[in-house]
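re: ur question from yesterday

yeah so i grabbed the chain u mentioned. its 184 aa long if i counted rite. heres the sequnce exactly as i have it in my notes:
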Amino acid sequence: MPNWCVNKLTVRGPEEALSNFIKCSFVYDNDYGENIFSFAGTVDPKHEREYPTRKKASKIGPTLGLNWTVWGVRDPYVSEEKIEEQSSNKFVMWFKTAWSPPIFWAENVLAKEMFDGLRVDLAYCEQGMDIYGSVSLTKRGRQKVEGNCSLGLNYNEDQDEYIIDWDSPFGEFIEKWGFTEYGG
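ran it thru and got these structure tokens back, copy pasting raw so excuse formatting
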């Protein structure tokens, strides 16, 4: 069972490029009867490869070579996706990935001509390994990276749980990026 990495993806840019991104990002899954977010659609927009459905992917497990090098995550699908905002020049979505944020995927997406002019901001938090951070990317590469390997959680003996130290860099990070429900 993976440690779940909570991600906030913000994509901004020209209307045509953003429209292409959204169209390629959602694929119809026959098992679930709905469109679901998939990394495969943006990395392989012509669908030259056949990818298993989400249900089949969960049963057969990861194809590590392709997934880790192209997407930077285990599976082509995300878990618990939730669109926060969608307009002609901005798309914001929350989702979970296994173990790590999809930074390599974002770099691969931005290298494609059909997505010219897009900027990707990705904030992530994975409490199992105590990592959090954010990265801003354009076609020219990583523009800004911030992060840490210490979450700033304090153990509260009375409540028998860890609580966020809001004065720590982690507390500031959560407030800045809007991580109101932290967890995995």
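noticed a couple things. The helical segments are 15-25, 39-43, 54-60, 64-71, 103-110, 169-177. also The beta strands are 4-12, 26-29, 34-37, 79-86, 90-98, 119-126, 131-138, 141-148, 153-156, 161-164.
anyway ttyl
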